[in-house]
Amino acid sequence: MKVIALHRNSKSEMTAWGVGPKIACATVPYALVMILLHIRFYPDSVISPVPYAAFISCGIALILLGFPVWLSSAMKIDAFFQKRVLATKGIYGIMRNPVYAGSFFVHLGIVLLFRSWFLITIPIVFYISFRFLILSEEAYLERMFGEEFTAYKRRIHALLPTPGRIYEAFFYPAPVGMIQENLYAVKSRDVNLFIYRAGADAVCIDAGYGDDATAEGLDMIGIEAGSISHLFLTHGDSDHTGGLHHFPAARVFLGKDEKEMIDGTRPRIAGIYRSPRLREGYSLIDDGDIISVGSITVRAIATPGHTPGHMAYLVNDRILFTGDAIIVQNGGVAPFYRPFNMDHAAAVASARRLSGLEGITIMCTAHTGYTRRSDEPFREWKSGQGIPDDLMRQYRSVRPEPPADADASLPE
User: Fold this and answer.
1) Which CATH number fits domain 10-168: 1.20.1740, 3.30.70, 3.40.50, 1.20.120?
2) What is the 3-state secondary structure (H, E, C) of 197-225?
3) Which end of the chain, N or C, is more open, meaning fewer C-beta atoms within 10 Å of its C-beta?
4) What angle do CA 350, 352, 355 make, to 5 degrees?
């Protein structure tokens, strides 16, 4: 991510009104003419050789695809502009201009519902207009972000989804290596496990999938699995617990409310999938518990939502490991992706709670890397901005009460 001050003409080039007026001027007159022609020549204007059911199904599919893309990106684009952020992850990791793309898909879907020879030409005009508008806007972005934008432009298509980039747009763990002194990341497919070492003592956060990449990553950073004495699991999903066999000497810790997930009591997904059962000998911990390992202190912070017993961990009051409580994306933070959360309202409450932590120097997520600018991404959450009103209402209804002996540095 690159942060650059806007030059004095930026407001005239990228206004708060967005691209709506430009799109309207370029397409509405043509669309009106085509609608009148369709009405004038109906029913001869109907595309009759193709079954109407095919148009209906394709049209609805395009609307269902395009509307969330259009809406979600339109809600965020002004924030990116204000923060001077080049967005390259999430939906922006699939297409460079999701506002245009979502609008195009929606309008194409609506037009298909009418199966008209005249109306079917409207999306073509939309597409051509969008391409011309994109040229001027991307010239502006290239001036602002230079080679960063040029490289992004080479990777991602302007309007159409880039299929080969879909997964990495949402899951982009940190590479294997040292993040800072004493702190290391190991990559296991699409997830990170983290190791913090102080002298002879070493603790690990999560265990990855358990594939060969975990052992290879440990070799690369020069840490022996046997030197890990304490392993803290954020939750019981297989991408976080599958690698426990790599750490046979480690004492394993898990949130007490996660027990029902790893003993088979509660299903993970609608009774179809259950989290893997863990070997015996793990220790259950509660919100606010502090475990000392030599000079290392690990504080457990309950962050339910992704799973009932999800825990974040604060090491030495400075390094925050969030697991799947949040993601870091395009200069901000958000709760983990909704489809994977068992209780999204609780996940919002947990993200809100983490936003109140002070003095964090680095924040490490499981699937979206880490950030040293820990205060900046949380700024909107601290002020209550950036959280939809319906989720804020749910947040207030599920807001967890702090334990009686909780440290004052932990928010409610």
Assistant:
1) 1.20.120
2) EECCEEEEECCCCCCHHHHHHHHHHCCCH
3) C
4) 110
